[in-house]
Description:
The complex is a heterodimer of chains A (622) and B (214). Chain A is α+β, with helices and mostly antiparallel strands. Chain A is 37% helix and 27% strand. Chain A has four domains: 18-234 and 315-390, Nucleotidyltransferase, domain 5; 236-307, ATPase, substrate binding domain, subdomain 4 (Actin, Chain A, domain 4, Alpha-Beta Complex); 397-503, Substrate Binding Domain Of DNAk, Chain A, domain 1 (Sandwich), CATH 2.60.34; 525-621, Substrate Binding Domain Of Dnak, Chain:A, Domain 2 (Up-down Bundle). Chain B has helices spanning 37-41, 51-65, 75-95, 98-108, 123-141, 145-172, 180-207.
Amino acid sequence: MPIEISGPSPPPPKPRGLAIGIDLGTTNSVAARTDGRHQPMVIGGPRGALIPSVVAYVNGEIRVGADAYAAAALHPSDTIVSVKRFMGRGLEDVRGELAHLPYQFNPGSGGVIRFRAGGREVTPVEVSAAILKSIKDMVEQREGQPVEDVVITVPAYFDDAQRQATRDAGRLAGMNVLRLLNEPTAAALAFGINRDRDGVIAVYDLGGGTFDISLLRLAGGVFEVLSTGGDSHLGGDDFDRALLDLALQKAGASVGDLNPARLRAALSAARKAKEELSAASSVTLTLHLPGGQRQTDVTREELEQAIRPLIERTLQACRQALRDAGIKKTEVLEVLLVGGSTRSPLVKQMVAGFFGRQPHDEVDPDLAVALGAAIQADTLTRGREDVLLLDVCPLSLGLETMGGVVEKVIHRNSRLPAGARQTFTTYADNQTGMDFHVLQGERETAAACRSLGRFKLSGIPPLPAGMARVEVTFLLDADGILLVTARETSTGKEAGIEVKPSWGLTDEEVERMLQESMDHAEGDFTERLIREARVEGERILAALDRALREDRALLAPGEAERIQAVADRLGQAIAGDSQRAIRDLIEELDRVSAPFAQRRMNRSISQALEGRRADQIVRQMG
Amino acid sequence: MASTAQSPCWNCGRGDPRQDFFCAVCGALQPPPDGSLFVYLGLPAAYALDIAHLRQLIRERSRLLHPDRFAAKSPRERRLSLEHSMLLNEAGRVLGDPFRRLSLLLKMRGVEAAESGSAGIPPALLMEMMELREELADAIQDNQPGRLLELDRAMRQRMDRLLADTGAWTDANWTREWSAEEKDRLRRSLTELKFCDSYLHEWDQRAGHLKDEG
């Protein structure tokens, strides 16, 4: 009866360095850890807790976060934003939204998406790894301790390919991925950890690119997920696009009229307008169209009319989740809002209306997920025993049978880890091989489900049709990642695959990428921290020096002196050997020069949009 | 809940009796013992079951055996915790559902439902099934919410009654041998229940939204 698990298994994690939690978001990412008393806290970068999930490949450098964001306007196709939307996807999957994206793609092997950025080819896994690596470095700088283990959050509705891609990105960033944790579950953990009120809570998580709804029962420290649902392609980005389409339509234009730079700028303007409409009743959007600049007014009412159908889609998923959990709305004790897009007043209003109660918003919707991930990282490495998460799989898993029909082996909302075994027989006399096609999804036909991979069991002894018995075992681990094995029962002949999606990266590719990233790993840790801080400091001083020379006109009286004073102190710190002093001064310099940098930025962007030559601007940007 | 198997601990090799799946000497997690899901949970093999008790039992065991508790332990123990947890989850899925629970009990006594499309299905039942399916398809086709809700109610009643009757008989006669006629009758009931279950499953898929609030 018990399913025995064999095969290699990674060595047990030894908690030497820090174990952190990372919310790898579509728009922003957040890192968190726990303190000595197991309390979670966010670890902020120099510009705050939210690190833009943006990577720029410019001038042979990889820039991440706010630095990369600054480059987006000038190098639209070399700056990758919202990469999460591409994780574990093939080019075909995202064809529909490419019109809104300024990227260039290389035709990859096996349908893997490969961006062409800054003269190189990068996959979504590599882009995500760059974000994670930069967060790891930031945390190490801040905490003065190496980061060893990580819990990375994923949307609950992520499929197997998306989860594997995320895990690969974590490995590629040089961390031991302890666990992939579903975002709504993480948020529930952060919310429920210090409360002793038991009952059912609903987590409504609307981020930049994904939507999740999870229903959980809290009882004595056990967080039991009852059901989960959602849409891995619906989020605030869609609100931005709806608003942009609306504004363009009013101006008598369409997205097709915009080149990549204009499109990127227009999307940024749309996002800003959307955020402003959370408070204001009307905003003016400036669009740079081929025929010149156009001002368009958009009212909150118009925006709400445009996004209402999108929110209605999320409520449909809520109904399904309630049905799957066998829960009535009145049994839901509390509703928790997570994700930046839940700041939209219409979202709040419609969710409150749907559940018939005011949602909680005391946990910051941007931070809750990372805090929960940190708690889970703590639980896994320090053996915390008062908390337990029991999660489920979001999508059914099955095999293709005769006629292209899917036979479900593990049903959606099954508790993890889950194992199931199904027996198949041969359909022809003397059949010696059997092909298996593993699928994920709720639809009845193989064509309508997501293909996870194919494998073959050969060497079946020649027997009359229906006599050979092949046992297929599905094993879904606590990360929601699938392992399939097949065994012919009379001979014991076995074939197994860790299902690698047809469009995913091969193990060899991941290994190669890991090798390539290893060059950073050697050397004494503190030595490396100081070296990195020095390089960073010198880079900043050089850029600042150039900027001060070139743009003296943009400086306010006395400003240059104030900035130079801090720069001088940074120069002295670089000569010394305190990593902390260098870091503190970089931050101080960042603060004191921020208004100047902003002025330069504004001017560069308007120049870019006026069609100045790009090389001129690049020089000015430093 | 001492384990039935008394083989020595895989880790320390000492043959001390075990307690709660952990070696009493070295504390290492032991493999799940052989036996049914009932045995595994230390429950009597019976249809009658306190579901709240079952849920609590699984929650308590999960607290001890979940992979999260073994993240820093040896690979062998981590694998064992995965096996235990899968078994616990399977127990929740099967024992927590009256039809699956009854199916398991009858299977333990060698009674299984007839395969769909096989000759083992009584012709009268087969005929009735086809008619009911057609009725459901028509109601979906014609988009008749009232009719659909009525079909659901009727089928649920039928299934609940048959489950209760068959379950009660099984419990009452569990300890004695069953005659061929009795087994045959049970097989017919189980086949009918299987049909009811798949009918309701289809209803949920196609018309489940009718029960949504708001």
